[in-house]
Specification:
It contains 15 helices and 17 strands. It is of the alpha+beta class and 437 residues long. It folds into three domains: 223 residues, Bira Bifunctional Protein, Domain 2 (BirA Bifunctional Protein, domain 2, 2-Layer Sandwich); 57 residues, no CATH class; 108 residues, Anticodon-binding domain (Rossmann fold), CATH 3.40.50. Strands 1-5-6-11-10-9-7-8 form an eight-stranded mixed sheet. Helix 5 packs parallel to helix 10 and helix 13 crosses helix 15. It binds adenosine-5'-triphosphate and magnesium ion (MG). Adenosine-5'-triphosphate binds next to strand 6, strand 10, strand 11 and helix 12.
Length: 437
């Protein structure tokens, strides 16, 4: 028979297991805790959306729409896209469900996203984000709240060291338009010093040249006109209120006048939390205000602001994570006591203080004791026969606090009264529960 070729994983996807998965889950759990602290509601959204959700809102000229989307025709002939970001889908849901009645809404979501990019460290084709948005609030206090929450999240993950909040304003629509015109003029004057990619962006998305990663573009980009010269009084006041709020909350920030976001819909505040610890993939969290987005999707003018962070990049920065171990290993070396050992493990899992319990049933019974010892569990319970009684023998240290409820639960589950005898087994302080049947 011909040898069957095992299919490979799709390029740019990851199978996460062990420490990688634990770091990932830790980031999500921390986000879920922190977003609740700030009163953000959770969302579950489809991974697939009509292609128009992204092409209309993100802008045809953006990298995401022009090069990175996974778009296909489904069997009914509709153009479907695997979501490359959350914001547009959230805005679509906001409109199609009539959530205007709940505005302002503080929303959060996390899950997989898809972009056809060149895979490298910290850059995947399926990646994952945590995301927080406030829809229907025009106040700079909303921008501040989101940034303070992001700052707390990074602190609670223990990765704030070496991460800086870079802040910019893109102004309101008149400011942004005036700046854009100035940029097009300036870049046209310096055409021969620009990379090919940037020449292509010149008319359609000139702001994007400012954050080009191509070294050829850097001198021209760095000397380009800055938004400050084009900011309306209103836009200046807005930015001033955001920075004053951050200062009041004790959140450190630096101004980066060249910071623009890749997507077209941003207005006013734009920000990124950046680290130098991840090489070229240094942006861990980014976002800003997108007052124009919901209108682009056919909705009423609606102010909104939000951010998203790559879970993989955050997880890579997390220092170390306590290995996910069980608390108790239950085992028996006598196969006729298997059922009893199962009952003991269930009793411990359902106790007044449920403990993470593994019932060891694989491998040779003779080796289970050694396996339990090597497992690193805080405790091991050995189910044994003692003369005419059964015993549950506790090996290793036991937290005194949980000792009595655990014993009671076990004796209740087994329907036997236990006597407690202190004993010394394998040089460890231990107790034996002797049940008289
Ligand atoms: P970059 O400049 O790194 O491509 P971006 O501007 O495309 O980032 P956003 O669309 O703002 O990124 O997404 C927010 C965050 O999501 C990024 O800061 C990053 O942490 C993460 N991210 C974006 N694309 C990827 C990817 N392909 N793989 C892993 N993480 C990603
Ligand atoms: Mg990108």
């Amino acid at each position: 028979m011909a040898k069957i070729q095992t299919p490979q994983a799709v390029r740019g996807t990851q199978d996460m297991f062990g420490e990688t998965e634990e770091r990932f889950a830790h980031v999500v759990a921390t986000f879920e805790r922190v977003r609740r602290l700030y009163g953000f509601k959770g969302l579950q959204l489809p991974v697939i959306e009509p292609t128009a959700v992204f092409s209309r809102s993100l802008g045809e000229a953006t990298d995401v729409v022009s090069k990175e989307m996974y778009t296909f025709e489904d069997r009914g002939g509709d153009s479907i896209t695997l979501r490359p970001e959350f914001t547009a889908g959230i805005a679509r849901a906001y409109l199609t469900n009539g959530w205007q009645q709940f505005a302002p809404m503080k929303l959060s979501v996390h899950g997989p996203l898809f972009r056809y990019e060149r895979p490298q460290k910290g850059r995947y084709r399926q990646f994952h984000q945590i995301d927080a948005e406030i829809i229907g609030a025009a106040e700079p206090a909303a921008d501040v709240e989101l940034l303070v929450m992001a700052d707390q999240l990074l602190k609670e993950l223990g990765i704030d060291d070496g991460v800086t909040l870079q802040l910019n304003t893109l102004g309101d629509t008149p400011s942004r338009d005036a700046w854009r015109t100035a940029l097009v003029g300036y870049f046209n004057d310096h055409k021969n010093a620009l990379s090919e990619d940037s020449l292509a962006r010149l008319e359609k998305n000139p702001l994007r040249i400012l954050d080009s990663k191509d070294p050829k573009d850097r001198p021209v980009a760095d000397a380009a006109p800055v938004i400050d010269d084009y900011l309306s009084g209103e836009a200046q006041d807005f930015f001033g209120a955001v920075t004053a709020g951050l200062d009041a909350a004790g959140v450190a920030w630096t101004r980066n006048a060249a910071l623009v976001r890749g997507l077209d819909y941003y207005r006013h505040t734009a920000f990124e939390f950046v680290t130098d610890r991840l090489g070229a993939q240094g942006t861990v969290l980014g976002g800003g205000r997108y007052d124009g987005l919901i209108e682009n999707l056919g909705g009423p003018a609606t102010p909104a602001v939000g951010w998203a962070a790559g879970i993989e990049r955050l997880a890579m920065l997390v220092e170390s994570i306590a290995a996910d171990r069980v608390d108790v290993i239950v085992f028996t070396e006598q196969t006729e006591l298997d059922r009893l050992a199962l009952q003991v493990s269930e009793a411990v899992r359902h106790g007044p203080r449920p403990l993470r319990t593994e019932y060891l049933y694989t491998g040779s019974p003779k080796k289970r004791y050694l396996k339990a010892k090597a497992s690193g569990a805080w405790r091991a319970l050995s189910v044994e026969r003692h003369e005419n009684a059964i015993g549950v023998v506790r090996l290793r240290d036991l937290n005194v606090m949980s000792e009595r409820p655990m014993r009671n639960k076990i004796s209740e589950a087994l329907g036997v009264q236990f006597e407690f005898q202190e004993t010394e087994i394998d040089n460890a302080y231990s107790w034996i529960l002797i049940g008289k049947k």
